[in-house]
Amino acid sequence: MTTRRPSKLALAAACTLGAGLAVTALLFSAVGRLEHSAARLAFEQRADQRTAALQSGLDDAVEVLAVTSQLFQTVAPVTRGQFHDFTRPLLARHPFIQAFNYHRMLAHAERGPYEARMRREFPGFQIMGIEDGRLAPAPDKPWYNVVDYLEPLAGNERAFGLDASYHPQIRQAIESMLADGRPAATGLIKLAQSIGNESGMVMLMPVYRPGMPTATSAQRHAAWLGDVATVIRATTLVRKILEGDGLLRDPQLALQVSVGAPGAASSVVFSQGDMAQGTASASATAFARLPGWLEWMDWTHRGEYRRGFTVLGKNWEVRLAALPRPFVEQHLGSLSTLVGGILFSVLMAAFVHTLVLRSRRVQMLVDARTADLQRSNERLNADVASRKRTERALQESEQRFRRLLALSSDWYWEQDVHYCFTSITGGFFDKGHISPERFIGKTRWDNAPEMLTTRWGREHIAKLEARLPFSHLEYAITGDDGVLRWFSTSGEPVYDATGDFRGYRGTGNEITERKLSEQRIQHIAHHDVLTGLPNRVLLQDRLAQAIAYANRSGHPMWVLLIDLDRFKFVNDSLGHKAGDILLKAVAARLQSSVRESDTVARLSGDEFVAILSEYPDAQLSPDIVQRVMNAVAQPVILEGKEFFVTCSIGVAAYDGTVGNQAHHLIEHADIAMYAAKKQGRNGFRFYQPVMNEEALERLRIEGALRKALERGEFVLHYQPQVDLGDGAITGAEALLRWQHPELGVVAPARFIGLAEETGLIVPIGVWALRTACAQARVWHDARVADGQAPLRMAVNLSARQFSQPDLAQCIADVLEETGLPPACLELELTESVFMDDVTQAVGLLHELKALGVTLAIDDFGTGYSSLSYLRSFPIDVLKIDRSFVNDLATDTDDEAIVVSIIALAHNLKLRVVAEGVESREQLEYLRRHDCDQIQGYYFSRPVGPLQFEQMLRDNKHLGRADIAAPARVEAETGT
Ligand SMILES: Nc1nc2c(ncn2[C@@H]2O[C@H](COP(=O)(O)O[C@H]3[C@@H](O)[C@H](n4cnc5c(=O)[nH]c(N)nc54)O[C@@H]3COP(=O)(O)O)[C@@H](O)[C@H]2O)c(=O)[nH]1
C-alpha cells in the first residue's frame, strides 16, 4: 500500500528557482546595462548627428559666401545683373539665406555721386541708417558700407541702400575681416529687414581692388572695395539644416542651438522641446548620483549633451537633453528578460518540482514494486522450492514409471506434429522384434499401410487431425523376424505452454496373445465347430455383403439351401461319429465345388447354405448347382464301407434389384429345397413365387392349427389291427383327423409335420392320447363285460412328444384319468426318436415300459434302423413300414426286408405288425412268413369311433381264406 506525502517545494525546485532568479537578475542587469548604454549611445549619436548637420550647414553657408566672393575676384566689376544671376540658384539651394549682399565701401566724398547715380536707377535712393530702430538717412560718416547689390530684393527692401556699418557687430566683423584677411561674421543681430523677432547673422568676406596686395592689414585696408555678405536667418538656418537631414522631429529630445555667449538667452538661435524638463528630471531620479557602473540602474536613461564649434570666429553651441520616454518602451529588453527570467525560473522550478514529485512517486512506486517483487521473489522462492520438490517427486514418479514400464508389458511413445515417432521407450522394439529405424521418424501408417485404406485407419487419422485422444487402437505389424504381432495403443494430443499443438504421446502394449484368443473365439463364434464352415451368424453377414455387392454391381446372386437326403438314417444307423465324418466330408466337398470367394455355411444339422455371386468373368448357371450335387454324391467311406449320400437343393436367385426380396433369400431357398425334397429328393429346384404360395398355405394352416384344438376341430379315427392267427380285431391305431370348417377333413400328412415343427404336436398329442384312452376304456369295458378279450389301443407319439421331460408322468396321468389298463395302451414310436440320445431314450422307454404299456417301433426299416440297439430297447412290437408291404410280391428286395424284419422281431421275441396291407397277396405273403398282425385297407380304412364300434359289435374278422392255408384259402374263396 502506498502513502501520500504532503507536497512541499522540493529543495531542487527551490534551488532551481533561486538559480533562475539569480541568472535572471544577472541577465536583467546586463540587459539593463546594455539598454542603458544603447540609449546613451543612441542619444549621443543623435546629438552628434545634429551637431554635425549644423556645422556642415554653416560650412555650406560659408562656402556659398566664398563662392560669391570668388565672383567678385574673377569678374570686375560685377554688374547688378550678374550678381542677380549668380545668386539666384544659390538662394534656391540654400533657403536659410535671407539675402546675398554686396556692401560697397564709400568714402563720404563719394556719397553724393553715388546716391545720384543710384537715383537714376532707383528714384529716391539715399544711403540709409537706423536710428532708434527706425530707418533714416544715414548720418554723415567718413565711410559707408552701403548695401548696393541685394538679392533678393523682395522681402529685403529695408536693407537696400542701408549703411551696414551702422551696426556695431557688422563694423566689428569688418574690422576683424580686414585685420586677419579672413571672412568674419556677426553674432545674432536684429536684421534691418526683419519684421518679427527673428534674429539673423551676417557673414562677410572682403572684396579687394584687383591687383592690389592684401597680405597685411594695411594693404587690405588699402585694397578694400567692399565685401560680399550673406545674411542668414539663424533660426531658419538651423531648422532647415535639421529638417533637411530628417533630424528635426524627435519627441525624445530637447534641442537648443546658440551662438555667442553660451547660456545667454539672446544667443539662442533655435530651441525645441523643454530643455529644462530633460535636465531637471535627470537630476531628480533616485539614481542621479549613482556611480558610473551603476548608471544602468537609472531607469530613465536621461542625459544632457553639449557640443560646441566655431564658424567664422563665432562659437556655436548645440545642447540636447533626453526627454522622458515610456518606461516599458525604454526597458523592454530588460523587463522582458526580467519577466521572462522570472517566469522561466518559476516554470523551471515548477518543472523541477514536478520532476521531483514524479521522481518521488516513481520512487514510491519503485519501492512498492520492489516490495511486491520481494514478496513475489519470496513466493517465487517458495514456488521454486515447491517446484523442485514437485520435480523431485516427478523424477521419482518418472523413475517409478520407467521401472514400472520396464516391469510391465507397456511402453511409452511420443510423436511430433507430423505424427512421426520421436521416441519409444519400454522395450517396444525388443518385444516387437522391430528395429528402431522402422519407427523413429515414421508415422504409424508407414508401418501399417492398411490404415490409409481401411475405415478404422482413416477414422484414426481423422481423430488425430481433430486433435482428439484415442484409446485401444489395435493394429498389426510384421516384425523383422517375419512374425505378425498385434499392438494396442492409446494416446492424447500434446500442447505446449502457448497452446500450440506439439504432437501426440501415449502408451502401447502387445496384445498378440489376446488377439489370437479373440480371433479363435471370433472364429468359434462365427464358425461351425464340426465342419469349420461359417455358421448361421457369419452366414448372415456374408449374405448381407453379397447382397450389397449384387446391389452395387447389378449382377445376380444365388442362395443355395442344401439338405442331405436321409442323413438321419446314417446318423441313426452308423452313429454320430459316422454322421460327423459325413458332414465334414460334405462340407469340404461343398466348399471345393464353389469359388473361393463364394460362401458355404452350415445352417443346422444336415443343412448347408451356399452363397454364389456372379462376376463379370463367371456367370451363374444351373451347372454350378449340378456340380454341387455331384460333389456331394461322391461316395464316402464310413466304417470301412462306401456310403452314398445325396442332397436336395433349393435355389433362391437375387437379381441385384435393390431390396428385391433380399431378406427372404434363405427362406425362399428353404421353400425351394422343400419342393425339391417333395419331388423325390436328389434334385434341385429354383424358387418360384408359387412355392411361396404353398409356404403361405403352410402358414395359413399353422395359424388355423393353433386354434383347432380349442375349437374342437380334431377327431380320432381308428384303424383296426387284425391278428393273422384268428383274423379277429385285436387292437386299433388311433389316427388323428382335422375337420377344418373350410378346408374340410385335413389329412395328418398335411399338418402333423407342421405341428411337429411348431411344437403344437405336444398338446395335440396329449389330446389324442387322452381321447384314444378314453375311447379304449369304453370299448374295453364293453368287451370285458361281453366276455371278450381286451382291445389294445395304439397311439402315435411324435419325436417332439418323446422329448418332453414329463412324458411318462403325462401318460400315467392320462391312464389314471381314463382308467384304461396300461396293458391296453400301445405307444408307437418312430426310430428317429431314439437317435439323438440313445441312452436317454432307453431310460425313457424303460420308464414308459414301467407304466405297463406296450411299446411299438413304427415305420420300422424306413431309415435309421439299427438292429444293434433293438436288443437294449424294452420294445414289444415292430411295425413294418407300408412302403415295404406295398411292393411285396413285386419287389424281391422289399420281400426280403419284410422277411428279415419278421425274423428279427421274432428272434427278439417281438410282435410284428405289417401296416399298409391292401391286398390279399400282401396279406398271404405276410401270413406265410409268420407276420403276427396286419393293418391296412384290405381289412379296413381308419374309421370313426361309431363305425369301429360297429365292427366290434359285428365281430368283424378276416375271412377264413385269409387266415387258412393257401389251399384252404383258395377253397374258402371259392365258397
Ligand atoms: N404323432 C401322431 N401321428 C399321427 C397321428 N395320427 C396319424 N399320425 C401319423 O400321420 C401319418 C399319416 O397318417 P394317416 O394319414 O392317418 O395314414 C395312416 C393310415 O391311414 C395309413 N394306412 C393304413 N392302411 C393303409 C393302407 O392299406 N394303404 C395306405 N395307403 N395307407 C394306409 O397309414 C397311416 C398309418 O401309418 P402308421 O402311423 O405308420 O401306422 C402317419 O404316419 C401317422 O403315424 C397322431 O395322432 N399322432
UniProtKB/TrEMBL annotation:
Keywords: Membrane, Transmembrane, Transmembrane helix. It catalyses: 3',3'-c-di-GMP + H2O = 5'-phosphoguanylyl(3'->5')guanosine + H(+). One of its GO terms (cellular component) is membrane. GO terms for molecular function: cyclic-guanylate-specific phosphodiesterase activity. Residues 698-956 form the EAL domain. Signal peptide: none annotated. Residues 555-689 form the GGDEF domain. Residues 471-523 form the PAC domain. SUPFAM superfamilies: EAL domain-like, Nucleotide cyclase, PYP-like sensor domain (PAS domain). The chain crosses the membrane at residues 335-357. This is PAS domain S-box-containing protein/diguanylate cyclase (GGDEF) domain-containing protein.
